[in-house]
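re: ur question from the group chat, yeah i did fold both. here u go
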Amino acid sequence: MKEYTVIYEHTENNWAAYSPDVPGCMATGKTKEEAERNFRDALTFHIEGLKEEGLPIPEPTSEAGRIRVAA
């Protein structure tokens, strides 16, 4: 079991989700929750494909945080 950092971005029309540790794997959804579900499915599919091809599974190394500044 691996735990990846996921970045969620709200756009004008939907939400996007991706992990900096897994290039090329992303998903979208009308809500953040839908994007999360879709990304979980996409990530599972992506990792299964890497395994089938005998390619290495990316290690989760990214962390995310928030910084508050006056604006």
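okk and heres the other one u asked abt
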Amino acid sequence: MQNSLADSPTTFARLPGRWAPVWVIAYVAMWPLPGIAESVLVLGALFTIVRLLMLRMKGGIGPLLSVPAWALTSVLFFAYWLPQLFSAVDAADPSRAWAKVAGGLRYLPFMWLAAIAVATPQRRRTTFTGLAVVTGLWMLDALAQGISGTSPLFWSLDQLKWMISGHGLCTPEETLLADRLAGVFGPCNLKLGQVLASVSPFLLFHVGYRWGRVGWVVAAALMGVVLVLAGSRASLITYALVLLLSGWRLIGAKGLLLALLVGVLGVAALTVGSAQVRERFVRTGMALQGDGKGINEALSGRSQIWGAALCMVAEHPVNGVGARGFREAYPDCDPAPAQAPSWGEGPALHAHQIILEVLAETGVLGLLLWLAGAAMALRAWRYASPEARDRARPAAVALLVTVFPLNTHLAFYSAFWGGLTILLAALYAGALLAERQE
């Protein structure tokens, strides 16, 4: 048959590209359900491997990606994965470390898939618009929770979970202990602030391109309200960078200063009206006490965690204690073992800061590999055309603010935050170095 896939190599070659945006958007949309999101990632990686092998057997992979995009995507993967490999040699928890190394291989084909999803104007438009829509829905859902006390999206997912398994997504105890706006992620997965701050560039750039300054200002203000109510101070730093990098070209310096003034007034109003927001700022003010205890409380115990991380760096400077081995090494490096930690029972799970996490878990060797990857990403940006920079800007800003070192972070070698980071890296590489047009 002339129209069969076997006899139509052009159509067959396009199949991985046509499906790529669907996989990327589905993966992001499932982040509130980590297990399902991980399944989407694995299936997407397997889909990519099978399709590429089939294309290879048909005579060639074809122009799914430009050669520079293939190269940069792969380099960024190895900058992330090789530190895990080297750190596993004498890790604090060898079985866990080697499992991370083996499992980390799934990221490479998924990064190729994500890069393919933005390699042409049509696919890039579909992917970035889809990510903007998902981000916007999460933002509106969180606003609804702020007004009514219930997240419609999380309530729907929770009801579905009850129907399937006879219990909800979160326990009653976790629901009672939640001290901030949780949105679609729910009270047992308090990541709303960090996630929305990292992916907000897709929404703000999309709204800015489509509705101009007014649209950008409205979306930025609504997102800011959600992030203040979400209670994560790290997300506010991330979002401030997003506003600076996305608003500078659109509303100018004077517009940003006005937005800053309005934002400060809005935060003050929310502080007066919300006990949870007020408690966060009171805790932040404890840093002004000047003593170590006050600073530690203001940082939610992170100074204690960072002291332990520096201890791990001193004891394992070359290749660290192993990816995700922080919790195993923490008891021996706890600088205040007699002091009850601010976060509750048990050891700290990670360093809460990207440079300290990389150094503690993968050593100087790991940090050098991460810096090499960053240098390659910056080099690609430096030599890219203005048109290429414009089409990659949403992903570039999202990646930059996520790994911004002067902030606190989630664990970059965890399945969730690691998956988010490598996705942003792949979208950046694929969009910046796209050559093929449709």
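fwiw on the second one: Confidence is low (pLDDT under 50) at residues 1-13. Residues 16-432 form one domain. idk if thats what u expected
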